Batch of 4 targets.
Target 1
Amino acid sequence: MFLLKKWLGSLLLPLPLLLTLSLIGVIFIMLRRHRRGLVLLLFALLSLTLLSTRPVANALLHPLESRYPPYRAPVDREPPDDIIVLGAAVAADPALPLVSQLSQAGLARIAEGVRLAHLYPRARLILTGYSGGEAMTSAELYGEVAQVLGIAPERLLRLPEPKDTAEEARLVRPLIAGRRAILVTSASHMPRSMALFEAEGVYPVAAPTGHLAKETQAGLPLYSYLPQARYLWRSEQAWHEYLGRAWLRLRDAF
């Protein structure tokens, strides 16, 4: 079931989906259904172009990333017992530095987790995430990075089994039940993560990180609005989250 979800999710991302539509358009043209084929080709090309621009990518990400504000240490609240850092993709190559083996999302997540661990020296650091076919799991790499950055090993609890956020929420739930916890994950991923944890009956405080929809106060040159691969990647991150939320609604409906 997990592999099926991953496969379908990958097919429904903008680039493979729109390339598939383009191919279907070409086939229609070859079959002399020119109008239908041209419509598909133009739609796919225009969509791909728009998704590769900064305004569209940021417009897709902003509703997700602005749902929860950045974490600020409250002066009127008891310190947390646990800090949970959700897993992200890894490339466990021992020839690389530790931080280079983490994805951009993973690096942002563990950096925020370590920051909070230093802020709350009595809190336990719960690290999650499986290997995805790599030699080390996300949880194990997180633990190595955390220790290098000054976190004592006895404060670390690694959970290398969960393959997705739903499994992470299920496995973490009994560990934080009745305890104060902070949840660290990417800002765009936070709404879906909080929904899954709350569905398990636990209510951690959100600490989003790794924001992508960044705007500058200074004016941007016109060329920054041209289509670029990095903006398409940002659109894909948002698209992935919207697909995930749609899957949750569909699952809950049945």
Target 2
Amino acid sequence: MRAHETTIPGVLRIELDVQPNDDGWFKENFHRAKLEQAGVPALDAVQHNVSYFAEAGIIRGIHAEPWDKYLSPSAGRVFVALVDLRSGETFGAVETFELEAGQALYVPRGCGNSFCTLTPHTVYNFLVNEYWSPERITVDLFDPELEIDWPFPRRQLSWTERDAGNPTLAEIRMLTEAGSRPA
């Protein structure tokens, strides 16, 4: 396991060792001691979520929850767009990644996570260090200020009603500067 810094402070891109075998492959998706040795902060995972997506072009996010996340696909590939929503000089910074079974991301609390399935039959794992709650900051997936170059044209993407109503980064910025906590 090897961890690499990204342009967003605290976000780490992780290379996992995938061992081919006669039946397919094996990987240690999460091994706390090896990850810590590679420079990943200790993640005391309390919940492991797995999502299955039958089609390519399914998009979710942008959500910044009050917990740290460890993300990795088990099958298929995903395009991930992260947005720093923590107050400070990197507020609004965006970085994108393509992940397959041999990669993972460590995403600290306050960083918005979104993804788009690149292949049918994608299985995506999320380990978190706090139990799920509805508390989060959300941002419009298609906010022009973010300039996220999604891998499919918008008309080919499928997203939830809930994500369709997310505020823009400018609206989040105004709430933050006014001292309010965005919902």
Target 3
Amino acid sequence: MSAAFIATFLLFCLQTNPVGAEVAAPQNVTMVTLNTNYTLSWDWDQSAGSHAVTFTTEYVAKFNLKYKKKDPKWLVVCDKTSHHSCDLTHRNLNYLGIYMIRVCANVNGSHSDWVHMEFCPDKNAALGPPSKVNLTLAGSTLDVSIHDPLDSTNTSMKEKIPLLYYHIVYWEGSAHTQASGDQTLTTSANLVTLPDLKSWTSYCVSVQSRYEYYNKSSSFTSPLCMQTAGAIPWWVIFLSFLGSLIFFFTIVLLAIFGFMKIYKTIKTVFYPSNQLPPHLKEYLCDSPASDVPRLLASPDSESELLCDKVIICPVQVLEIHFPPPEALAAPPSGLEPDSSGRHSRQGSSGSGDSGVYSTGGSSGLRQPNSNQSGVSGQSMLSAETSWQGPFDSEQVKMRDMTPGLKRQPLITDEGIVDMCV
């Protein structure tokens, strides 16, 4: 009985003995930091146990461990996570505080031994480079504008590290020609003017954050390059002035040319060169000087009743045909001039009749002879109306159209000679 009791007791003790020592603990526990970003990371041997392993991370302020308490209150950050890291940034740890952090592995309800590490952000946290660096031209030199590193809440790290300063390195050339002869400058200001620079020369700048108390230094920023300026040569000023002058005159000429084209187009549209005749403007427009047409009135309007009818009658133009000079210069056949300038008719009758020939081509008309010289005015009128020739009808029409003209009496003097027109 005693042997069986001892065997049962030993089996019970083996079943109730904690198996924590049988689970492998995490290895290479480190803190990855930058300013106020803290991440705890570790390694674990996969061959030491099952693949279904989880990890638990806790922390406590170190001053709480100094009290004589058996069980200080540890704050859990990551509980049974499968990742090999735990982020403590959101815990807002005091930058000047000291904390104890521990982590263990969990397998099938059993956990490994705790791995502890001490962490002080002010001492152990890495310092980051400036958040931003700008270069501005200041004549023959350069101004360097430095923005402070930022913490996890986008606040300047100078609030946590008042002794933060910057180490500036600048050199002549390009970003890939950095040599041993670089110039350096140390400052805690955020705006720095680089001294002893050459005119019209390209310089590159890189900045580093430093904290001397714990000998912290950040990485350098990416190089920024810019060329300095200096006194502008006279030929550059002259060419700039000449170019601006040509550009200005070109713009003015183009503006004038465009204005003239638009003006001519508007003038052609609104003021055409072909205008209405004055006599049409008088009747079609409100006034002779206006181009606005008169409004048409209705057929029953009073203005149409006041207008008189216009009748257009054709007028026949009298045509006068003059004989050629040869016909006027030579006397008619059968007549011979006598000594007194009269034309005597030659014929079988042998009478002494004499006639006067008109200058209008009516040489065929015969005047009464000398024996009938005493004929009265009525005989003359009848003789006048009895003319025969190609212009008798036209002469009658002219007399009818101009009744106001006085008739000229016929000249019966036999002493009148023919005249040429």
Target 4
Amino acid sequence: MSQNTAPSAPTPPRTSSAADTWAAGGTLFAGVMMLVIGILDIIWGITAIAEDDVYTRVGDYTFKFDLTTWGWIHLILGIVVVVTAYGILKGTEWGRAAGITLAALNTIAHFLTLPYQPWWSLFAMAVSIFVIWALATDHTRMGNTGRATG
């Protein structure tokens, strides 16, 4: 018995818009920037743990911790950010979700350390906000329903 089925038309390849290309490039850039920020956070943390007198406070600040405490926070955060950057660069969904979360935490951590490293903190916060945007707007892995296809 043969089945009477008409051959189906091939599905046209999905064309990427300029916005999709920009977001995909932004995601690659976000992964690289997270890797760089993670490594620099590790260095920041080690420096703060090893030598408290390397950083000076710019004034009185409500959110003050001992510099050694900030060093440990940045060291641990930096290690986790580097691992997450690897996940983003490999294109994993867990890397993308963790990247958004860690970029938000990194923004908060750098806001709280503004008195110790004001220019670096402002730069790190700006990069983290860009990372959040890039990871949240990359729709290249989305299906018709708007949900990630993995």
